[in-house]
Every structure is written in structure tokens, then in C-alpha cells.
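Fold it.
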Amino acid sequence: MIKHMNITLTRANFEKMCEPIFERLKKPVIQALKDAKNPKIDKVILVGGSTRIPKVQKLVEDELNGKKDVHDSNIKAAEDAIAGINGDSDDLKSIHDAYTNIVNVVKSPTIDNLQNMRTSIANMSDSNISRHLNDTIESDMIKHVAEKTNKTVKDVTLASKP
């Protein structure tokens, strides 16, 4: 039989309970910085539900000497689009390529990156996946590039055709 429990959990108690997990989060950040050998970091993009936790954001900010994190809804939309793919596909490389190109558009919103993204989606052998990505992400990416390049949506759409 399922029993319900109703408790109040303060942020302080939550953070204390999760402290071992928060400490483990530091290691990959420190290792990535060490591996990069003096990286120049302009911004940090955190993706995923747990990155919305203030303590996680603060840990990343502290490890990166005050760099603020950026939650990019376009990357989240791309992840959601890919996570929503149904069925089996032997086309994992093309899915990976499409995702990489979507992230590139978000990080550097140029016509060339958008064209690469649209081409990788159009070239997928699984037309259901291609259609799904077109339906869920392409128009948002076109708007994103138009906004960042001060061009019209129509101009960006035409210039980035695969």
C-alpha cells in the first residue's frame, strides 16, 4: 500500500542533503578546465533540470571565476526535439550531426551554421526524424539567427536553404 508523506524541505536542508552530489559536480568542471589549458570562456551554457538549482549555478560560477551561466532555451528545445524521436533508427550519426549543428547555431548564430543545420536535417535517411526536427526546431532556429544578425526571417530562410 502506498502511503503519502507531506514534509517541508527548506533550501538549506536540501543543499545539506545534496552536498556530496554537489561536491562530485565540481570534479568534471575542474578537469575540463585543466584539460583545456588556460581556456578563454565567454559564457557557460547549462542544460538540464538540475542546472536550475541555485546551488549548482553557484558552484559553476565559483569554479569559473564568476562567469555567469546561460540557460539557452534553444538548446533545450533541440534536446527536447531529439528526445521526442520515436521508434528505432540506424541513423544515430545523422541524429548526432543534426544535434551538433543545432548547438552550433545557438552558440554562433550565423547563416552558415544555420545552413549546415538545415542540410544535416534534410539529409537524414529517416524522413520521420527529419520531419520531426523540422517541425519542432527549425523555425525557432531561423528566428534566432534573424534576431542575432538583424536580418528578416524571410532573408535568413532563403539564405540558409540547404
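The mean pLDDT is 78.
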